[in-house]
Amino acid sequence: MKISSNKKVRRFLGCGALVLLFVIAASSPVVMAQTTRYRGTASSTMPIDSGTTPAVRQQIAGWRQASDLQPKIAALGSTPVASLPMPALFGVSPSDLSPNFGVVRASGHTHEGEDIMAVKGTPIVSPTAAVVLRLEQGASEGNGIYTINPGGETFVYYHLDHYAEGIAAGQVLEPGSLIGYVGNTGDAAGGPAHIHFEIHDGSGTPIDPFPRLTGTFTPEEKIAFLSKILIQTTDSTALARFLVTNFRGTFLTDLAANITLPLPIIDALASVPVTAVTASASGPLPAGDLDIGSSGAAVVALQKYLIQAASGVAATRLAGAGATGNFGIITKAALLEFQVLVGIATPSGYYGPITRAFIAAHPLGASQPSAASGTVMFSRDLQQGMTGEDVRTLQVLLNSRGFMVAASGSGSPGNETIYFGPATKAAVIKFQIARGISPAVGYVGPLTRAALSSL
Description:
Blueprint: H1 7-13, H2 54-63, H3 70-75, E1 114-117, E2 123-125, E3 130-138, E4 142-149, E5 153-160, E6 162-163, E7 172-173, E8 178-181, E9 194-200, E10 206-207, H4 219-232, H5 236-256, H6 263-271, H7 297-309, H8 313-321, H9 329-342, H10 353-361, H11 389-400, H12 422-435, H13 446-453
Antiparallel strand pairs: 1-9, 2-8, 3-4, 3-7, 4-5, 5-9, 6-8, 9-10
């Protein structure tokens, strides 16, 4: 169900409180994956799934011969879709992928698909129009689904946590129709959650999906798909809370773009608690090295740190993608940006001993001055849409001097947030007018920073 406006979320989340772009919701636990790397060679840390066997491919050919499927297959057309959107609905973009088709696994088998690392429980949707061919369960594939797609191709999805509610063989799917949910079933059990995704051409030969996974669904399309999924699921409240827990930043970005969200998501944005991540020597940040291809809870913790650090454009992009647990080029760029900002020697975007030691010595918020201390210093200009602990400090300072961000709720005294929203901008304008700063437009530049620091 959708609502016609975003009034409800403004009521709950207003006052400058399009809040933190990352969360840990105690009421909706998420199973995160262990750290895994992919380097294009056999490794004992890699999932051992290798893909369909010749026997399974022969079975697929037999399943496709069912007479009742032929009109549905013909309706899909004879031309394959060249650019495929990501099957994982949230948290993964084409830039996050690393090619792993053809990689020799630790078991000695050659990998015949693309492993798409994603948060366990994330909805998986069909990237094209399709017909459901088969639902299968096995020791290797776990929960698997096979679909027939345009151009006579067959798509394979393995290791699903569970299937889409009501899905069945012979069902016709539209682009964005729910297939199932990301998991780690079958021989991926105990390893990182992911989708093992295969494409078989018309002759049944597996082909590399990586060059084709270049498309994206628009934010509007994703929300439209999600609206249908929330109606389809047996517990829309639980799913909405899970999604907000893991992808809050995505939905806040949608709100900022005036995209109408489904009611369960709006309710979850208002009710799911937001918990800031702290980092210290004993905190949750990982002890090991991380780089492109790493995944799991360790990467989630690092991503949350980088998002809250809000070091620049790359961090903002990472905030939009969310803490997915997949170390791709977006995370690497944000880490590199952070390393440059704080002066780490030889910045490279690699999370190693030097960066690890720096972060351990600089818990988030520790370097931010207290508004009550009389020593407030702002190291960067601030404006609407930015996030960071310095925004929280700004709100505390404004509230303490009578330029109220909000009288109650988010942004009010004791409930300051790290998001610079419209209410924060309005409070800054009041301060600028009182101090004779011109133009009074709510931008915290050098003059306003100096005035704030003198309070």
